[in-house]
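Entry 12.
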Amino acid sequence: MASLKFSPTSLRRVRRERGLGLRTLAAQVGCRHTTIGHYETGYRVPSTPRLAELAHALATPMDTFFEVAE
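Predicted 3D structure (tokens):
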């Protein structure tokens, strides 16, 4: 059965489409820019509340940050 997993590349793509730098996005969600970098490289996975904050800051639905995992 397929499941959903966090997609680091989707977060990076949306952030860049919105023209935001790591530091700007981090300031909007209340974390360090290195944390956003870790999310975008897949080193860390954001919590559900943090994903909601990211989605709000980037004006995109939360499901944007997920992909189907086989």
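Annotation: The mean pLDDT is 95. The longest strand covers residues 3-6.
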